[in-house]
Amino acid sequence: MKNKWSPGKIVGIVFGVTGAVFVLILSLYASMRQMTRNIRFLDIALGGAEEENRDEEPDERTDIFGDQEEPDWKEEWPEEDWLKEQEPDEIEQWEDEPFLYDYPQEYDGEYYEFHDEIRNDLSYQVRKERFADFAPESVNVMAGGEYIKVICTDKEKEKRINNALFQEIDEVYDYIAQVDQEIDDELFLMYEVNCYVAYMDADVLSVAYVEYGYLDDERFDSCVISVNIDMESGFSMTNSQILQIDDEFAIDFRERTIRQNGENDNLDYYTDQEITELLNDEDSLIIFYTPLGMEVGFNYYFGWVTVTYTDYKRYVNPL
Question: Treating both helix axes as pointing N-terminal to C-terminal, what angle do 155-179 and 20-45 enclose, rounded to 10 degrees?
Fold first, then answer.
């Protein structure tokens, strides 16, 4: 539908880049990346090493270019030393001052489209940080983009939140390190991460990572990763527990997809039960709050699809 195609259309896998065999190899590593998520989640559930280290600050990325000539796209970012000079009680005064980045706050679309909803009137602040790095010992496989960093008076909570937000960037680095082993030296692979503050208030912060993989400028992969933070505790929400999703929900989701996105032949390959599974799987589920309500969808073989739920509260899982 006219207002929805930008964020919700299905992004097809681009074939013919270097042949079907190479695409299958990349698909294999995409599956390995999902398996990595499962393993990390299991480690946390069992109180493993990941749980012990979750309060550690993310590694600071140094200048990745060394003695090489810097690419044209590398941007100079504003000096951030002023943040170190701020006392915790001064953060409360920021709501009356313009923040580092000024984003448009008005949005009146019928369906959600990816954009930033950054507010300056809360007890915490958010800022965008850029990252870029090559895979280890590589000059032709790299990842770059942006992520969100939170600043608040409770430094322990701030650390938990930022570790949760940076976890996806860590997984992107793991992914390109794996793929680098199969990339021919004549090819260049770039994994791009766009990050959006989909919603923020005193209780919830919702962030969406929209990711694209390019091989010699041809797109071969895309996905959306959603992170929802309980701002009272500073811990990530379990996305699959936010809504009650069953086969009836899946049938309704399919109908809403047609209304909002238009006909999607790719979904015809999936039964209602399979869509239910995708919407309940923590690895495939896409779910985040927006000013319009909630965006719900999933990643799958053909890309990703989302639907805007203005009436999401009727499906909320009771606590």
Answer: 150
Q: Are 200 and 122 in contact (CB under 8 A)?
A: yes
DSSP 69: P
Amino acid at 131: F
Separation CA 108–CA 285 (nearest Å): 26
Residues in the chain: 319
- HSE, CB side, 13 Å, CA atoms: give it for residue 279: 27
Rounded distance between C-alpha atoms, residue 91 and residue 97, angstroms: 10
Written as six digits, the tokens of 279 are 């919407």
Round the average pLDDT of the chain to a whole number and report it.
77
- Spatial separation of the C-alpha atoms in residues 127 and 302, rounded to whole Å: 32
Per-residue tokens: 150 = 């939170």
This prediction's pTM: 0.69
Residue 3 phi, psi (nearest 5):
-90, 0
CA distance 14 to 10: 12
Find, among 291, 122, 265, the residue nearest to 196 by Cα.
291
- The tokens for 47 are 């109180």
48-52, 132-136, 225-229 — which is least confidently predicted?
48-52
* Residue 209 CA to its chain's centroid (Å): 2
